[in-house]
Structure formats: structure tokens, C-alpha cells
Design goal:
Number of helices: 16
Strand order of the largest sheet: 1-2
Largest sheet: 2 strands, antiparallel
Number of strands: 6
Shape: extended
Length: about 425
């Protein structure tokens, strides 16, 4: 931008001299001026906050007096009881069609004037369209509004972010005053082309301190670390799969997600939150027990996801089918369930399907379990001292052996038990 030069004219001189319109401000004076401005802003903010506090107190008093909620009077104070924001959700098909034609004219190098857009031929072309074409034009218009977002310079983006976050913060604080809510929001970038630090907004600073208590003790809450992780997740497209490095890690993540979703669908359709998917005993443990069947499985055989191959396209195909609802559980009627069970039993009798495997019983079933060894550092009980169950000589060399591998001699009855009088 060219510098503006101010020309000064003196009546006593016959010539015209040039010079700068202002003198440079010293650094100390700029700092003093900035400090004065900051103090003034803080004073204004404090005065406004005091006024808001008085208004909220007055709204509370009026609510108790007239039997209404404080938000009613706050709306009357700030908005006059009217809804000031009215969003137009309906899109006019003719306007969307005109925008499409204007874009076509710009591609051809023509100027999309109002006379050109309201031409008779274009009106006839629009009237020849049917309702399905209008709906398609409207959907394309809505999609273009989302995609064709103006990307400004990095400085413009930063200014836009700061202003938007400030407006959101003001709206949340106003909502807190009208309704009574507490919230915290984190803003992170989702592209590597734009650089900014994660921004946090807390309606109450105590929320940030509480998060240090709410998270596990072994790893306390760190706002900066959480913001950095959220930023990495957003840049990765909000997809955990993109954060993994090797194909095996991605396959394990997909199989784990498939397993969790199937278990969740089973718990939802059966109404039993503790229901567990049984892959090896599917017909008896799932179909016959709950009366449901899994349809849309993309593999040939139904097996545990941990036994599926590590092919990422096949695993992603199954996960997409689950998310889309094509792979889901279906409730069977009583007749369908009976017919399936009769067919299954006939296949077992004919040898087509192997019979279900019976669970093996424990070899020590019915016998009383032995007591485990004493923990390290614990004192023997009175019964052990009296019965001679602890042999220090036998265990003297076992001090460096783990507790689960130490050997304790079996309890033996003592020949003579000393009484209190004999001990004295």
C-alpha cells in the first residue's frame, strides 16, 4: 500500500514543502498506551459483568415474585420476548436453478445478468423440468453451499477462527445465564494447511480442575495433551484407522470394532446388556436361546472376527455393512425358530452338521480346593502356630522364591499346647 504524503502550504513561503504526516511513536510510549488500553478494557469488562450480575439477580427476584423462570425475564430484558434468529431452511427450486445457470455462464465466459437469467428460453427450459429434477437441483445447491466455502489467507482464517470462537463463547455464556448449563468446548484444526493451537472454552474454570479428578489417577488430565491428541485425530479425518501405522494394527482395530458392534447389536435386539456373541456355538447359544439370526455377514462362514484374515478391504466391507445396517440381527417368529431348529436337528442326525461339543468338566469338580500359600510379610495365625503348620527351617531358603511357588508343610497337631500360666 503506498504511503500517503501530506503537503503543507505556508502563506509566508512561496514554495510547497513535503513531510510525513506523523512522527514515529517511541516504544516506551506504545507500551504505556497499550497498558492503558488494557486497563480500560478490563475496567469495562468488570463493569459489564457487574451489570450482568445485577440483571440476573433481578431476574431471579422477579421469577420468585411472579412464579416464573428466570429465563423468561432474561428473554424479556435482552430480546423483548421475541425470537430474533429465523433460519430459512427451505430452498426455492427456481433460485437454485438460476444459480446453476449463472455458474454455467461464468464457465463459458459470459456475464450472468438478471436479464440473461430471466430470458424466455431459460424460463421454458425450467418449466419443462419435473419434480424429481427440481429435487436434484436443490440437493446439488445444498451440497455446493457446503463445499464451496471461501478459503481466505492464513491471516484471514485466523481472524475468522478468533471471531467465531468469541461469538460461540458469548452464546454459551448467555445460554448458561438463561437456562443454567455448564460446558467446555475444544477447537482444533482438521487440516495440515492451517496452523493454530487448540483452543479451549470453559464456562467455569472449575471444570478444568475437575477433569483432573474425573480421569484415571495413573494419567492425570492435561488440557494441552488432550488438545494435541484431538488435533491429531481431526487431521487424520476423525478416523482411528488413519492413526495406526502397520496393516496388522489396522486389521486388529477393524476386527475389534466389528466384534464390539456385533455384541452391541445383540444386546440391543435381545434387551440383555450382558448378552455375549457365541460364534462357535452360534445355533444353540444365539439362534435357539435368543430367537435371533445374524444376516448380511459378508464372509462365507461365521467365525470369530479374531479368526478372520488380515485383508483390510474385506474387513472394511464387513464393517461398512454393519454400519449401513445390511448386516444385522433379525428377530425370528416362533414358527420360524421351530422350523430352523427341526432342520438343524435333522442335519445332525444325517451327519451333515456335527453335533455341538459338550463342555469338558474340571478334573477336580466336587473336591474342596486347597488353601493357597500365605502372602509375603503376613504373620501366621494362631491355629498355624499351634498346629505347627509353618516350618521356618523348611522355608528358610524360600525367601527369594515368589509366593506362588513357595512350599509350606502340611499342618500337624502339636503334642503339647502351652497354657498362659505355663508360659509365664
Amino acid at each position: 500500500m503506498p504511503r500517503i504524503t501530506i503537503w503543507s502550504i505556508h502563506s509566508s513561503c512561496s514554495h510547497v514543502s513535503s513531510g510525513k504526516g506523523y512522527a514515529p511513536i517511541p516504544t516506551a510510549q506504545r507500551k504505556e498506551k497499550a497498558a492503558c488500553q488494557l486497563a480500560k478494557r478490563l475496567e469495562i469488562n468488570s463493569a459489564v459483568q457487574d451489570w450482568f450480575t445485577e440483571v440476573y439477580q433481578e431476574a431471579t427476584v422477579l421469577a420468585e415474585r411472579f412464579g416464573k423462570k428466570p429465563c423468561y425475564f432474561l428473554d424479556r430484558f435482552f430480546q423483548g420476548g421475541a425470537h430474533l434468529v429465523h433460519r430459512q431452511g427451505k430452498v426455492n427450486a427456481f433460485n437454485a436453478w438460476k444459480k446453476m445457470k449463472a455458474a454455467e455462464m461464468c464457465e463459458k465466459g459470459e456475464t450472468p445478468t438478471l436479464r440473461a437469467l430471466h430470458d424466455t428460453k431459460l424460463k421454458q427450459e425450467y418449466e419443462a423440468l419435473d419434480a424429481s429434477d427440481w429435487l436434484e437441483i436443490i440437493e446439488n445447491h445444498r451440497a455446493s453451499k457446503v463445499i464451496n466455502v471461501k478459503r481466505t489467507t492464513p491471516r484471514g482464517k485466523l481472524q475468522d477462527v478468533v471471531c467465531t470462537i468469541k461469538n460461540i463463547e458469548q452464546q454459551i455464556v448467555a445460554l448458561k445465564g438463561r437456562v443454567g448449563i455448564e460446558a467446555f468446548v475444544c477447537f482444533v484444526r482438521n487440516t495440515a494447511d492451517f496452523h493454530m493451537q487448540p483452543q479451549w472454552v470453559f464456562t467455569d474454570p472449575a471444570l478444568e480442575e475437575y477433569m483432573k479428578i474425573a480421569v484415571p489417577i495413573r494419567k492425570p488430565w492435561d488440557t494441552a495433551e488432550v488438545g494435541a491428541k484431538l488435533e491429531a485425530f481431526a487431521i487424520a479425518g476423525c478416523n482411528n484407522l488413519n492413526l495406526l501405522c502397520t496393516s496388522k494394527q489396522k486389521a486388529d482395530h477393524l476386527r475389534s470394532e466389528i466384534r464390539e458392534k456385533i455384541t452391541g447389536m445383540l444386546a440391543t435386539i435381545t434387551g440383555n446388556p450382558t448378552a455375549i456373541m457365541q460364534y462357535s456355538n452360534y445355533k444353540e447359544g444365539i439362534v435357539q436361546r435368543y430367537g435371533v439370526v445374524l444376516e448380511g455377514w459378508t464372509y462365507e462362514t461365521l467365525v470369530n472376527p479374531s479368526q478372520l484374515s488380515t485383508s483390510l478391504p474385506n474387513l472394511q466391507k464387513l464393517l461398512d455393512a454393519i454400519n449401513a445396517g445390511t448386516c444385522r440381527f433379525i428377530k425370528l417368529s416362533a414358527l420360524e425358530l421351530k422350523a430352523r431348529w427341526q432342520k438343524h436337528e435333522k442335519q445332525i442326525e444325517d451327519g451333515v452338521t456335527p453335533p455341538p461339543k459338550a463342555r469338558k468338566q474340571h478334573s477336580n469338580m466336587g473336591s474342596k480346593r486347597k488353601k493357597g500359600p500365605r502372602p509375603v510379610g503376613s504373620q501366621p495365625t494362631n491355629s498355624e502356630l499351634c498346629d505347627g503348620g509353618v516350618n521356618d527351617e523348611d522355608n528358610r531358603g524360600d525367601r527369594n522364591i515368589p509366593p506362588q511357588k513357595r512350599h509350606y508343610s502340611s499342618g500337624k497337631s502339636a503334642e503339647i499346647i502351652a497354657t498362659d500360666s505355663e508360659a509365664e
